[in-house]
Specification:
Elements: H1 9-18, E1 23-31, H2 37-50, E2 54-60, E3 63-71, H3 75-82, E4 94-95, E5 107-111, E6 132-134, H4 136-142, E7 148-152, H5 156-159, E8 162-164, H6 175-185, E9 193-197, H7 202-213, E10 218-222, H8 225-235, E11 242-246, E12 255-256, E13 275-277, E14 286-288, H9 291-296, H10 303-308, H11 313-327
Parallel strand pairs: 2-5, 6-10, 7-9, 9-10
Antiparallel strand pairs: 1-3, 1-4, 2-3, 8-11, 11-12, 13-14
The chain binds zinc ion (2 copies).
One zinc ion (ZN) binds next to α9.
Length: about 350
């Protein structure tokens, strides 16, 4: 048994497509003290790869944050086995809303300083003093009341394709920027009731304690995030107050919550909420592109990148430098989604 993957991306995707069984996409996180994250990581990797699980998992001294796909016929035994880790016992598991099981094509478990790259100095505030957790139904009741402030704690490219009606959606590129913008812009209304939400709830744990530390009196957060909200609302047969798509950090890039398309193609402006990465690997920009523009630009973010697909090998060497000067290494930053979208088509911004 090996501790790391050894196939190419192409081979792995092909293997995934050829699988004769279904997969279930799940996610979970927990803030829990792990004495030896590397050791724990290796333990999980051996266990989960033997069960043929895929996913992206971060392990840190402060806990675990996992997005995974589990072969559906192994799901029950996977969940049972999870119970045997003291650190992971009784952890709430969230199931994906729109799930074709093709969310991941390999298992990656990384040891990181933190389970969410939030850029915050945790020593500066009490991270255990978090806001009140609201169930989907509680959140649903409060979300459109006039005295309540609803704040989307995700980045701009996430809230662009879907958000709660009337929510404040800061134009932030990173969580750190987001959290500071929110604390600053709401500094005059620290007594108001604030409702925070994010994808699966993990970012709100940090955000709520940060806001409480900065004197906000009534901080509440959606427990389990949009994923759990969507699931419970469906079960309760309530109309979703979240409109559009929930951005997810896997191969699917998004799952539709109420079927509405609220975003626009960054190239032609037509209604569209499909995120793609620019087909020019030197660029790799994450942006919204309709199928018509995908054809026209061959999956690229503009003429420059499309032309780059067709240059000779020598010219490509020159282009590598040009693009690196212009964009830096986008791939190093989680598919480049931290980059601003503003240079694509300024007229649509
Ligand atoms: Zn378009
Ligand atoms: Zn591009």
């Amino acid at each position: 048994m090996e501790l790391y993957n050894r196939y190419s991306r192409k081979e792995l995707i092909q293997k995934l497509m050829d699988e004769p069984f279904e997969r279930t996409t799940i996610s979970f996180y927990r803030y829990v003290r792990l004495a030896d994250p590397q050791d724990f990581r290796n333990l999980l990797f051996l266990d989960w790869s033997s069960q043929n699980c895929f996913g992206r998992i971060y392990v840190a001294r402060e806990g675990i944050n996992a997005q995974m796909s589990v072969p559906t016929h192994h799901l029950q035994s996977f969940l049972d086995k999870l119970q045997q880790y003291v650190e992971l016992k009784d952890m709430p598991i969230k199931f994906a809303v729109e799930d074709n099981g093709k969310s991941f094509y390999k298992l990656t478990i990384k040891v990181r300083p933190k389970i969410v790259a939030d850029g915050l100095d945790d020593q500066a505030f009490d991270t255990t003093d978090v806001g009140r957790h609201l169930t989907a139904a509680e959140f649903h009741r409060l979300v459109d009341q006039p005295d309540v402030l609803v704040v989307d704690m995700r980045n701009h490219y996430e809230s662009e394709i879907g958000h709660f009606k009337g929510a404040i959606c800061p134009q932030a590129d990173t969580f750190r920027e987001e959290i500071e913008m929110v604390a600053d812009q709401l500094s005059d209304v620290k007594d108001r009731k604030i409702l925070l939400y994010c994808t699966g709830g993990v970012r709100c744990e940090k955000a709520s304690s940060y806001l409480r530390h900065h004197g906000f009196k009534d901080v509440n957060q959606l427990h389990g995030g949009i994923i759990e909200y969507a699931r419970q609302i469906k079960q309760l047969k309530l109309e979703s107050k979240f409109i559009g798509k929930n951005f997810v950090f896997d191969e699917r890039l998004g799952e539709s919550i109420n079927g509405e398309v609220i975003a626009h193609c960054h190239q032609c402006g037509n209604a569209c909420d499909t995120h793609v990465n620019c087909a020019n690997n030197l660029c790799h920009l994450l942006f919204i592109q309709c199928s018509e523009c995908a054809r026209r630009y061959e999956g690229c973010c503009g003429d420059e990148c499309r032309d780059a697909l067709h240059v000779s090998a020598e010219d490509r060497q020159l282009l590598v430098q040009t693009f690196q000067r212009k964009f830096g290494n986008r791939k190093a930053f989680r598919k480049g989604i931290n980059q601003k979208l503003s240079f694509i088509k300024p007229e649509h911004e």
